[in-house]
Design brief:
globular; Purple Acid Phosphatase, chain A, domain 2; alpha/beta; 5-stranded mixed sheet; 2 domains
Length: 379
């Protein structure tokens, strides 16, 4: 049984109308049955002639999936998950279905996802499926462990499609246990420059363009940030001059391509710097450099204690900046000359533990993507 179904109590489901309507509702909505007023129940009953309960339609319009459809969807997702974790690969149709299911959850999320610890924070993966599997091995599988991913899922690793499909499948199957933030490479132009488009064409051939577009539609709806226990701000890269408060970020329109400039692009590209005060223009990329004073002001204005971000490669997989108020987590190993990878464990009280690991493949393997530039190539 899905974890969100446990909140539905038998006595609440009285009468054939409410039972059938409960089948139409999503698990989250069904949990609200206890709060229905008497007038709401009467309205549902009077609307019975307009309801197609077997298909989840009202007046001929599809409004939601039914319980039976959700159970079938979960079964299909679980079968595919077993296949992928056993070393299999997905077909074109499976990829498109996964993207459709995941996008349904992504578009419903707020710009800032509120999370409760414990949670494991994962930095840039860069298309390294083996590193992702290593993380699940050392930190725990989904859904027993909750994960927050900070973006950059593909780039130039050996299996960008496999990495992305597995993450999206986990999001679709366990939406409350997996949070996928948008990174700088989750954008159409970036995927064409840095390998995902080509990987789709190689793996799916004539169907590659369809799979690539399905991936991009998921990117269009990924949230920008997360806040853990109302005290830790998590984002792919950094801050933006136009966004001084969480409330300002909540009101941005994130859906669609983020473009080359503006507050969303800034948050996906701006980097903290130790030798900068205030804001400084980044010479070879979108976004800015920002100093410790900017980080301190943002945290104070929003009653936060810490910022966690990714984007930049750090040799040890983990680095503290700005007097410990900003942490970089990088989760792809051996991108450059044997760098370590790391994930950040936050317990129930947000106490921090860093787990590092090295590349799981043969020691003599060559470092990956050292020639990939770090700036936003415009083509």
């Amino acid at each position: 049984m899905d974890e969100s179904q446990r909140g539905i109590e038998g006595p609440l489901l009285q009468g054939i109308v409410l039972v059938n309507v409960a089948e139409m509702l999503s698990p989250r909505c069904a949990m609200q049955l206890s709060h229905w007023s008497r007038s709401a129940r009467l309205a549902v009953a009077s609307a019975g002639q307009h309801l197609d309960l077997g298909n989840g339609c009202v007046s001929g319009k599809k409004t939601c999936i039914t319980w039976r459809q959700r159970l079938l969807e979960m079964e299909v997702q679980s079968q595919l998950l077993t296949k992928l974790l056993s070393g299999g690969s997905s077909t074109k149709d499976e990829c498109k279905r996964v993207c459709t299911d995941a996008a349904r959850h992504l578009r419903r999320e707020e710009n800032i996802v509120a999370l409760a610890a414990p949670v494991v924070v994962v930095g840039s993966l860069r298309g390294e499926l083996q590193d992702l599997l290593t993380i699940f091995e050392i930190s725990g599988p989904v859904p027993e462990t909750s994960y927050l991913f900070l973006g950059d899922y593909t780039v130039s690793g050996p299996d960008p499609c496999g990495t992305l499909v597995l993450l999206l499948l986990l999001k679709a199957r366990f939406p409350s246990r997996v949070t996928l933030l948008r990174g700088r490479h989750e954008q159409r132009q970036m995927t064409q420059v840095y390998g995902l488009h080509d990987a789709c064409m190689r793996q799916f051939r004539s169907g590659g363009a369809e799979v690539w577009e399905a991936f991009c539609q998921c990117f269009d709806h990924m949230p920008i940030a997360a806040v853990v226990n109302e005290k830790i701000f998590c984002v792919h890269s950094g801050l933006a001059p136009e966004v001084e408060t969480l409330e300002g970020l909540r009101h941005l329109d994130r859906h669609g391509d983020y473009g080359h400039e503006g507050p969303i692009a800034d948050m996906l590209w701006s980097d903290p710097a130790e030798d900068v005060e205030g804001w400084g223009a980044a010479p070879k990329s979108c976004g800015y450099w920002f100093g410790e004073d900017i980080t301190t002001a943002f945290l104070k204005a929003n009653n936060l204690e810490l910022m966690v971000r990714s984007k930049q490669l750090v040799v040890d997989g983990f680095a503290e900046l700005h007097g410990g108020k900003c942490i970089t987590v990088f989760s792809s190993s051996n991108v450059s000359f044997g760098n370590q990878a790391a994930v950040l464990h936050l317990d129930e009280d947000c106490n921090r533990t860093v787990q590092t690991f090295r590349e799981a493949k043969q020691p003599e393997s060559e470092p990956r993507s050292a020639d990939v530039p770090d700036h936003f190539a415009l083509v």
